[in-house]
Amino acid sequence: VAIDRTERGEYVRLAEVAAGSSQVVEISADAQVCLDPFQVFHTDELRLRYGVGFITLLTATPPGSTAGAHCYRAAQRTLERAAESGSPARLVDVIGDLEAAGGPGAEVADKLRALSSISYSRLVFGDSGPPVDLEADYVCFHVPGLRLPRRHAGRDEQLPEELLGQAILYLVAAFSRQVLFRHPNRFAALLLDEAHALTASAQGHALVMDLIRDGRKHFAAVWAFSQLPGDLTGESDCD
């Protein structure tokens, strides 16, 4: 699996010569693909983990805060209602649950409502197409043009497009994890160029560490590239 953020599609071109089947998932503001984690993942455990991760990243909500806990419970209730009714679960329904519950989650709901129609958000909260297909031997997520938070920028200094870009990249990495761990009898690897784009957030860093630590027992690896060792270790880099 490769995550390609380059405009020129450096890793997209590998799909033309890679052995086996290849698939390039083009992700842009007008793409016809669904990135809703409630629809892409097949277990409530994964839907809950990555759905809440996406929401807290997008709204700059600390996962361990009271508002973060409200997001978790709202996502749980949404999944429970979907299971009871037999209807497909949708992440967008979490917004209504947060609004109805009030309290600290209401502010998160306001942010989600405002952000849900911006650019890439419609791929998660709208009906933009079928859920992303991850069955090929070589899967390349081509995500050019994502704006990511500037290094050392505070949470309150980040623009909506930067928060959205970071949250979308987090989902792409979560989908990559599903591909890596799908077949434990076949070696798989994630090529993660410019790893700092993911590890800059607590949610993204935890996901990358999860991939690295659990990779061995799933016969998988992460090939992470970055200019600074601290992007992976979480420590400050010396000059």
Strand content: 5-15%
Rg (CA only): 17 Å
Q: What is the N-to-C succession of helices and strands?
A: EEHHHHHHEHEHHEH
| Mass-distribution shape | globular
The description of the largest β-sheet is: 3 strands, parallel
Biggest sheet: strands side by side, in what order? 1-3-2
Mean pLDDT comes to 86
Q: Could you list the spans in which at least 5 consecutive residues all have pLDDT below 50?
A: none
Can you characterise this structure?
The chain is mainly alpha-helical and 239 residues long. The chain has ten helices and five strands. The protein has helices spanning 37-40, 44-58, 66-85, 93-101, 104-115, 122-125, 160-180, 196-199, 202-215, 230-233; strands spanning 2-4, 22-26, 138-142, 188-192, 220-224. A three-stranded parallel sheet has the order 1-3-2, with helices on one face. It has a two-stranded parallel ribbon with strand order 4-5. The protein is globular and about 50 Å long. The model has no long low-confidence stretch (mean pLDDT 86).
Brief overview:
The chain has 239 residues and is mostly helical. The protein has ten helices and five strands; from the N terminus they run ββααααααβαβααβα. The strands form two sheets. A three-stranded parallel beta sheet has the order 1-3-2, covered by helices on one side.
Q: Notable features of this structure?
A:
single chain, 239 residues, 3-stranded parallel sheet, globular
